[in-house]
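Subject: Predicted fold for Glutathione-dependent formaldehyde-activating GFA, 180 residues

User T.R. writes:
Posting the sequence so we have a shared reference for the thread.
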Amino acid sequence: MESIVAYELGPLPEKITGGCLCGSLKYEAHFPENHDFKDNSGTCQCTQCRRSTSHLFFIWQKVPFSHFKWTSPSTDSLKNFYCTPGNARGFCSSCGTFLYWRREGGPNINIPIGTIDPLYLFGEGWEDSGGEVPKNGFGRALANGCGGHEWTRNEIAGVTDELELVGAGPKGRGERVEAE
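User M.O. replies:
I've generated the structure tokens; pasting them so everyone works from the same file.
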């Protein structure tokens, strides 16, 4: 099986938009000109991420916090939960959507891939984007997994340990793969 690392990422977005399931929280993130989509894509298999995302692993695209902004009229439903002191997991208190992981005071925000709008993720509505978005979106660039995989000591044998995505980048066994 050929590794995803060898694949081209395809077109790269200048920005993305996204939000929660109920639509009360919406965001926009602009990527710096030198944004490395491979290094800033990763996964985590820790128990906290599994439980907060209700999935086998959390997959993200890391963006400088200074390039992220809320675009919804209000952020009243935005709440933070702290499993670990100083590490915020943002979520919508109306619908429960997990919207980010962020080390307080850190320079980055990790955006869950599943919260990115369909236009940017897989191209739904691309024909109305005026050429801003390609037919199939930017999913490959955003969710490539090449940046690293955290807490792989919690891999599920025969399930998450054999996924091509999780094999794309360096694995950490309970330590952060790269410092923020």
